[in-house]
Amino acid sequence: MNYIKDFENLSSKRVLLRLDLNVPLKNGHIIDETRIIKIIPILEFLIKRNSKILIISHVGRPKGKFNKDLSLKPICDYLEKKIETRINFISDDILKIKRNDLFKEPDEKVIFFENIRFYAEEERNESNFSKHLASFADLFVNDAFSCSHRAHASVCKITEFLPSFAGLQFETEVNALKKVTIEIKKPITCIIGGSKISTKIDIIKNLIPKFNNIVFVGGMANNILSFKGNRIGKSICEENCKSIIKEIFEISKDQLCEITYPEDVLTGKSTDGDAQTKDLKDIANDDLILDLGPKTLKKIKNIIENSKTVLWNGPAGYFENPNFAEGSFEIAKTIIKKNRDNSIYSVVGGGDTVAVISKINAIKDFNFVSTAGGAFLEYLEGKELPGIKALN
């Protein structure tokens, strides 16, 4: 793999830079800036070397259609202030733009294109679309490790048309995850959340033989509770996944991997309501499960206390409401406490999980924090990510 830091002369070179700026937005305001902070080094690196930067990124899942709520304009404005450099935001149809339309002003340094996922060709990894994007630039830099498990045009196919390099953050992520997989110490615990178990089933199945404990939290735990015959009210739950969960329990039993899921929960009538502690048998039909209960939290904290390595991907509850944030915060604090006496190696991955620890200003209290979610887990699983394969 070639790294942009080793490229000798970047002066006046047009660099097509793929970033992951998929940050949480609410009414056009950025909720968590962690992903933005992590990509500032590559921008400063290129600006210092007098490059012409063309930023491509995305936010959300617009499914190939324009969605004003998923515009990158607020992110562009925020980034412009952070790097103290004027950025030209382009919302015109990217398919109608030609190379000569760009950098018309001699002092222009950074161009920021609108959400690349507004184009269906992006997720289809279309060759002609990639070739068109490539025509804007002299070389391509992928500094979006967290998108590199996706075989998309601006991640994969683009490398067929331009000299291609890994960015600074990309290199940091890969090196840190290599360290985890090579020097990992047991007992190992994986705390995993998210709403859909089907999207992570292959990852979970492959992690079970490598881990001593897998702890299900958040929306994903509701699937387990339902499978075990518990009422979950109107909580988020995926349909048609009983066979998947059955398989998880069978594999974990064979591999002596302990599966942990909630014994009690915090419920609310709505996501912005108050919390009520309930045993599983007391959950009402109009309840939403939104956090871990005290008994469950105590059990998870004990598992962490007895672990040498912990990987965490997915918050424990609806942490956006402080009434349902304690589970996530207490997990974080337990890991931090162990980290401070060097008795655990901690790796956190995924945008929402990073947002949790960012809320308590604890980014620096973990051994490694990855903004990648799916890419983070698939790399640990041992899969070759399409983005890495393309750069190789």
Provide a descriptive summary of the structure in words.
- The chain is of the alpha/beta class.
- It has helices at residues 34-48, 73-83, 120-123, 127-134, 168-183, 201-207, 218-227, 242-254, 294-305, 326-340, 351-359, 374-381, 386-391; strands at residues 14-18, 25-26, 29-30, 52-56, 87-90, 110-113, 139-142, 164-166, 188-192, 213-216, 258-260, 264-268, 276-279, 288-292, 309-313, 345-349, 368-370.
- The protein starts with 13 loop residues before the first strand and ends with a helix.
- The protein folds into 2 domains: 4-171, Rossmann fold; 184-381, Rossmann fold.
Report strand %.
15-25%
Total count of strands: 17
CATH topology of the largest domain: Rossmann fold
Q: Tally the helices: what do you get?
A: 13
Structural domains: how many: 2
